[in-house]
Amino acid sequence: MPKVGIPRALLYYNYFPLWEVFFEELGAEVVLSGLTNKKILDDGVNCCVDDACLPMKVFHGHAVHLKNRVDYLFVPRLISVEKNEYICPKFCGLPDMVINSVKGLPTVIDCTINLRNGNKSLRKAVLEVGRLFTGSFSRIYKAYQKAAVELAAYERLMLNGATPLDALNGKGPLPADYQYSIGLIGHPYNIYDNYVSMGIIEKLRGRGINVLTQDMVCKEVLDRVAEGFPKPMFWSFGKKIMAASSYLIDQRKVRGIIYLVAFGCGLDALVGDLVERRIRKKGVPFCMITIDEHTGEAGVDTRLEAFIDMIEWRDTQECL
Amino acid sequence: MLVTFPHMGNAYIAMKSVLEDLGVDVLVPPPCTKRTLELGAKHSPELACLPLKLNIGNYIESLERGAEVIVMAGGCGPCRFGYYAEVQREILQDLGYSFKMVVLERPQGNVRDFVKKLSVITGGKSVMQVLASIKRATRVAVLMDELEKLCWQVRPRERVSGTVSRLMKEFHSKAYRARGSSQLSALIGEYKNKVSDVAVIEGKEVLRIGIVGEIYTVIEPYVSLSIAEKLGSLGAEVDKSITVSYWVINHLIKEALHLHNKRELNKASYPYLRSFVGGHGQESVANTVLYKRKGYDGVIHLLPFTCMPEIVARSALPEVSRQYCIPVMTLVLDELTGEAGYMTRLEGFIDLIRRKKELDKAYEEVLPGN
What we know:
The complex is a heterodimer of chains A (about 325) and B (about 375). Chain A is an alpha/beta fold and about 325 residues long. Chain A has 14 helices and ten strands. Chain A has a four-stranded parallel β-sheet, covered by helices on one side. Chain B contains 15 helices and eight strands. Chain B has helices spanning about 10-20, 35-45, 50-65, 85-95, 110-120, 125-155, 165-175, 180-195, 215-220, 225-235, 245-255, 265-270, 280-295, 310-325, 340-365, and strands at about 1-5, 25, 70-75, 100-105, 205-215, 235-240, 300-305, 330-335. In chain B, the strands form two sheets. Chain B has a four-stranded parallel β-sheet, sandwiched between helices. A four-stranded parallel β-sheet of chain B has the order 6-5-7-8, with helices on both faces. The longest helix of chain B is centred in the middle third of the chain and has 28 residues, at about 125-155. The N and C termini of chain B lie far apart (about 70 Å).
């Protein structure tokens, strides 16, 4: 049985159930890289271009981790996942970056997914990948159908308040015995990777706080909010982050917003600035935490504690 | 109504030409200086790329001098440049400036929309008048780039070093005062003659260096610490893969009309970078290959810190350099770039190339049969 390696990084948190089911239906064995740890990060830092952002380095680390264990490495070229939008330039060149920087790779599956001008390229990509494992179109088609159903179920779990980690571990939405909610926004691969985010979700939940992320707001709502932007935002994640932050505040769903930024992320630099200006004008507590390969956990803990204390202090000291 | 725009090397000449031909009062921002950069860095997001910061500095210095309208280009991604204008508008508004911002996006097949946007500043000029002035400005941009190219060729060969740079300084101070396309092209013609008359050392052997990378850092001399001038004084003739006229003709005009033929570029970059990555990332890789084919001795790759497309290009360049046997040096520029360290790297690179060239020559001579 051919082994397909999927790195546990970048859009793993958005699309893993889809590709897992798809490859398994085609008779391949899916090998997932381990949880991000110091070794993986160090390997990534060593082989990646030095001014790439943290998540790219993490991805390279996962590729190194997988390269000798699998027959195929799945590194799709994700140019766009929404009409008229992009993800980010580095995603457009991701397979090239990995191939140029990591030596001794197995066969790389680098299908191009570009939904910028419509769905045609998705079908092409699915067929291209499927044909590596089977000659039967109907089998590929059925596998994809089943995978898409799986993805939809996964996304529904998130709308009910589960994080991708909860959903992937088979946990449903958490019981509603929390005191209040805080919005945690940022690129999914930063906020859901427990090593990169230093377990920020667990830490907040440990204090009895519910965490709401942009993935827990449904797409139609976010699209409607995004229509109010002065210029349509052409980055899918940037749009989600900006729309979710203003939705969560305007609907009074959260008491404060934490934005997790990766050092060197081009989108976060601009989107973060726009989000911060908007939130400050609304008078809602806002905390921007920049993470990189050197971030010390103690410093982040201190900032989190101070932020939570400040929110709770406002209850008693300020009339809202 | 006083109109201003951000700097990008000699692009101000083409902008002045098009706007003044349409009867608009233009305020060219003062040339980029340390103050411009400091103002920009102070008010911009910390991790934004350098061009955004310098743009902010340009705007503030122009607004201080009474500018009322800012003209800025837009885009549709994935490079951050497409969202510059939005971020910049919010920054300036929060600083309390009052101004109007006109964002010109590439006409998506609809020239009328583009002209309509432009009409905010041009008043009641007809579409034909606007198109005619754009055509004249394109001509001015081409002439200007020819003049600059001539400087790159003459500088390493000049008898008295610094002559060309002195002439160009004189030229720019006069260009600030010239009005409209006719005066500007006459001025460019005058200085073209002056630069060609500079005394040169005949038959001097010079190195040829290609410069690739992100458009702003390649074109704007302030951020690259006048790389063309520095390399010229080190005895190297430079060529830039992107110039203002190339950008205007290929990216603004031809791409809008779907005439931009990228087959050669795509083919050259294909083994290393197989997709468009925004900005000029793919071009940087392709042009490195093309410079080698044209017989250049080395390539310098410029990018502002955190530039997304060029980081992708950067990951491919070591492989290109190895396979094509051409020295490539990447220089990352930001507001903290120090001149002394930068100069040392340039000198080191030039020495390396000169040595490589001598060795290559020596090998050729000792090879049997030659």
